[in-house]
Design goal:
- Two copies of one chain form a homodimer.
- Chain A is of the alpha+beta class.
- The first copy, chain A, has a single domain (3-212), classed as Electron Transport, Fmn-binding Protein, Chain A (Pnp Oxidase, Chain A, Roll).
- Helix content of chain A is 19%, strand content 36%.
- Chain A contains five helices and eleven strands.
- In chain A, strands 1, 2, 5, 6, 9 and 10 form a six-stranded antiparallel sheet that branches. Chain A has a four-stranded antiparallel sheet with strand order 3-4-8-7, with helices on both faces.
- In chain A, a hairpin with a 7-residue loop joins β5 and β6.
- Chain A is globular, with a radius of gyration of 21 Å.
């Protein structure tokens, strides 16, 4: 791997607990960011520490969010609050023969830094087009585009993915040798996100392929 | 609803964005906490703000977490750091006829407060039994119980669910009147967490019903 594809740990992103699960591949970071629709953002506003879920998307090495100009989170992050963004995909429960060896399989990314405000209508629209592309390729050419009023009322923010900790657990239960002979079921109970049958709001319009092919 | 079942908003949990989505029913809060296996916790440690995913469970009106005594998060939260705990269940993408009216259906809870350390081996074990019950009823009578060394190395923390903001979005797209006639597909693309076929680590032990019946 060259420098571009490797995550270089800082004091905040060095994985201390179970360091063997640290993943230093930037492609894995991108996959986690792209596979999830929602991230959680930690930030301080006044006296309070907040953890707020929001939709996110990625362009290159930046993670994007958007929101109403007036929202508490958008105001704090636009003002340069230190932020931590976490994305977690849970893949299963890992049941071991001993109670304390139970664990989970997951892929997670925790990003540190400050958001910057995306300025200019054209740049904001380009960023928001990428969100539409994440929902469904082609959809941005179908939906009615944002007008000046809508664009002005919305803030688009981005944070670099440069400082990120990626952790992947994808394994069978790990019991101590002395527990292996116990007659206790051990294994993985998988969990996954699946797509359900689309619900149509308007029966009088053509159904695009990305809707027809949505459900698993 | 009596006082016990109603969430009383504080300055931190008053829902400012889309207040019509605020949900003041404590039963809904409990359902969100119980339906999710992983929460995200925001807290400060030194100069840094962190957002860290971890497993959680509920007993009564408290949310519980556990972890190694040495973990940065456990140390900060045990020392009384202000915390915000977010749990989000994503139910679907909501596609509207206009780009800016796209949204998501979700159920989310954001809890504020400070964690307290659960003291005493018996009380810790009782709390951890409840985690095992969440994974599978009956499992705590099968797995090898924790021994003194394991229990001593693990911290169990709880935070009251008293100060919580619950937000539920469960609706069809909401377009402006002037957009409703557009020939653009609108509706819901559902997402859900489903259970996959269990993976057995040991073929020589009986398969419990909660494993046999796990997959959807």
């Amino acid at each position: 791997m060259n420098d571009q594809t490797v995550l270089s740990p800082t004091s905040r992103t060095t994985i201390r607990r179970l360091p063997e699960l640290a993943h230093r591949d930037r492609a894995m970071l991108y996959r986690i960011v792209d596979d999830a629709y929602v991230c959680h953002i930690a930030f301080n506003a006044g006296e309070d520490t907040h953890c707020i879920p929001t939709a996110h998307w990625r362009r290159g090495d930046d993670l994007y969010i958007h929101g109403s100009n007036g929202s508490r989170m958008i105001k704090a992050l636009s003002a340069g609050a230190q932020a931590s963004v976490a994305i977690t995909l849970l893949d299963g429960l890992v049941l071991a023969k001993s109670a304390f060896s139970h664990s989970m399989n997951y892929r997670s990314a925790v990003i540190y830094g400050q958001f910057e405000v995306v300025e200019g209508s054209a740049e904001k629209l380009a960023a928001l087009d990428a969100l539409m592309d994440k929902i469904a390729a082609g959809r941005r050419h179908e939906a009615r585009p944002g007008n000046a009023k809508e664009i002005n009322a919305t803030s688009v923010l981005r944070i670099s993915l440069a400082e990120a900790a990626v952790k992947v657990s994808d394994s069978m239960p790990s019991d101590k040798d002395e527990d292996l002979a116990l007659a206790v079921w051990a294994g993985i109970l998988p969990l996954k996100t699946t797509r359900g049958t689309p619900v149509h709001a308007d029966a009088n319009v053509p159904v695009p392929d990305y809707v027809r092919n949505w459900a698993d």
